[in-house]
Amino acid sequence: MRIFAVSDIHVDHEVNARWFNGLSEVDFTDDYLILAGDVSHVLGEIETVFDRASRKFARVFYVPGNHDLWLRNETQFASSLDKFDAVHDLADDVGIVTEAHHEDGLSIVPLLGWYDYSFGAPGNILKSAWSDYRLCKWPQGHDDASVTRRFLAMNEPLPDMPAGNKVISFSHFLPRIDVMPRRIPPHRRFVYPVLGSDSIDAQVRRLSSHIHVYGHSHVNRNVTIDGVTYINNAYGYPKETRISAKRLVVIHED
To answer: Where is the Calcineurin-like phosphoesterase domain positioned along the sequence (predicted)?
Structure first.
């Protein structure tokens, strides 16, 4: 059994949808897939991906990304939290796993999250350019920091890990900013405040994760920091061929 990971497949883009739809229906039937958020901003597209992924892989694990909670033309939802509930209902309907799973010496643990500006304060460029500020709608009294706290609280209590298990956790958002490579030029770093939260990594550490998969940044990465291997395998937007590998990646194999 192999465990594959990918995030940010953005099947709103036709070329991305063709790639995902073209994945074999026979090659992965004994394997698991970690799908670390940003499937689509369209609920119907998310449902289609869930259905097809559940037929291609033995088990699929998922956490939502920010795009998955956008409210662009979906007036049936009062807030992005309502859409979050609808996405989870779709996952449940087809057997997509959104809770901790333990088997045969292995634990796979999804971690919800958002961004709380622990990576820095947003500047004027970010405030004017970041689509979440227009397309995510929160209930009155909520802001990004409180949304982060809400999602992190939904991970609690963290599950007890069976003794000796290899622990693989995953989130959509970055658990720490130093997973970003040093090569990122300063003028690109204005997005850092909305990439994730240090509090996610606090939960990763409490789980004693061996591997943590994340997405969101679209910058593919495999780096070990203080004993945890952090892996980002974002498929990304069609033109992001330099920073994204555009393929599934095996992160564990029995």
So the answer is: 1-219
Rounded-to-10 torsion of CA 88, 90, 96, 97: 20
Pick 51 or 254 by higher pLDDT. Answer: 51
Handedness of CA 192, 221, 198, 224 (dihedral sign): negative
**Residue 45: which domain range?**
2-253
Count of domains forming the chain: 1
pTM, rounded to two decimals: 0.97
Tokens, residue 49: 């991906």
State the average pLDDT over residues 105-110: 98
Over 90: is that where the pLDDT of 254 sits? no
Q: What is the largest CA-CA distance in the chain?
A: 50
Sheet containing strand 106-110, edge to edge, reads 101-103, 106-110, 166-170, 211-214, 228-232, 221-225
- What angle (nearest 5°) sits at the alpha carbon of residue 223, between those of residues 244 and 113? 75
CATH, residue 6: 3.60.21.10
Beta-sheet pairing, 106-110 with 101-103: antiparallel
